[in-house]
Write a structure and sequence with these properties.
alpha/beta
Length: 326
């Protein structure tokens, strides 16, 4: 019952916050209200002064442990509300960064790499005085969480992967597109195109409460600064495509839990594939067990009738599984 209340509160809060905004969103989401106060860490990179947004949510009754949440490519910290609430209720401190190029963080035109993003997150933890964490990474955040764990294994107590992308090497079957070609594709973003992609890739069935995700994902396309946003989106697509982590799963040395929706069919670059190719790849009911075997001691938890975002589509089951395995 408590989880049901958390879910309902989350949906109502987020929906009210987003729908109250105009249709046009700034590319750093200034007019999107996050569930908790947002702070910024300054970064200097490639001669640019930029800043990284994050939420640092402390529990009323601390258990001395910290969880970091890494968002997916098409999201930011705003979609973690119910997870933050559930974890802080159990005494965890929860740190929720918006990666550089995403959410409320700077949309920097730089060379994007998972290694560099991992460095930024280590610097954030150092700044906040946090030494040991559990990391929960969703989608692209799962690739980043994997890279972070490989680079800084002494900082990670547990690796938690929620439908991570990169379980297969997209370079082996998705046709190459240059960043310029990807940029031209991103410029075509509309509410309809985003909703269609989310419907066909992320969820088993659509619910009206998911529309807030589409409104944020597509609302930036009406901003005068959208070309910059689209450029960054193309550069981060290139990062995912060119920097696989799937060949290094066997090197992970920390306890790992892999959560997957059995109906997830997410493929990065899906729009470039034929129907026959789509049918052969992105099948998480196959990729999940295969990946779990590659990671030493990995525990696999699968959710029936669930797509790419278990913490939103089957929140009660996901939060229970998270609580049992964190």
């Amino acid at each position: 019952m408590r989880l049901k209340i958390i879910l309902l509160f989350t949906i109502l809060t987020l929906s009210a916050a987003v729908y109250a905004q105009s249709d046009t969103l700034s590319i750093t989401l200034e007019n999107v209200k996050y569930p908790y106060p947002v702070s910024f860490m300054p970064i200097k990179v490639e001669g640019q002064d930029i800043r990284m947004a994050y939420m640092d949510v402390k529990p009323a009754n601390a258990n001395g442990k910290t969880v970091v949440l890494f968002h997916g490519k098409n999201f930011g910290g705003y979609y973690w509300t119910n997870v933050i609430q559930a974890l802080t209720a159990k005494g965890y401190r929860v740190i929720v960064p918006d990666q550089i190029g995403f959410g409320k963080s700077s949309k920097a035109i730089i060379h994007y790499s998972f290694h560099q993003l991992a460095c930024f997150n280590k610097n954030l933890l150092d700044t906040l005085g946090v030494q040991k964490v559990a990391i929960l990474g969703h989608s692209m955040g799962g690739m980043l969480a994997t890279r972070f764990t490989l680079m800084y294994p002494d900082r990670v107590e547990k690796l938690l992967l929620e439908d991570p992308i990169g379980l297969e090497d997209y370079r082996t079957f998705v046709p190459y597109q240059s960043a310029e070609d990807d940029y031209k594709t991103e410029l075509k973003t509309t509410f309809e195109s985003v909703k269609k992609y989310y419907q066909t890739s992320y969820f088993t069935s659509w619910k009206p409460e998911y529309d807030y995700l589409v409104k944020i994902g597509s609302g930036v396309s009406k901003s005068a600064d959208f070309p910059r946003y689209a450029k960054v989106a193309a550069l981060t697509f290139e990062m995912i495509y060119e920097q696989p982590v799937c060949y290094e799963f066997g090197l992970i040395k920390v306890p790992t839990v892999l959560f997957t929706g059995k109906e997830d069919k997410t493929i990065v670059g899906k729009g470039l594939l034929t129907d026959a190719e789509k049918a052969k790849h992105g099948q998480y009911k196959i990729l999940g067990p295969e990946t779990a075997k590659k990671i030493p001691g990995c525990k696999l938890i699968e959710f029936d009738n669930c797509g790419h975002i278990p913490h939103i589509e089957v929140p009660e089951k996901f939060l229970k599984a998270l609580d049992d395995n964190i």
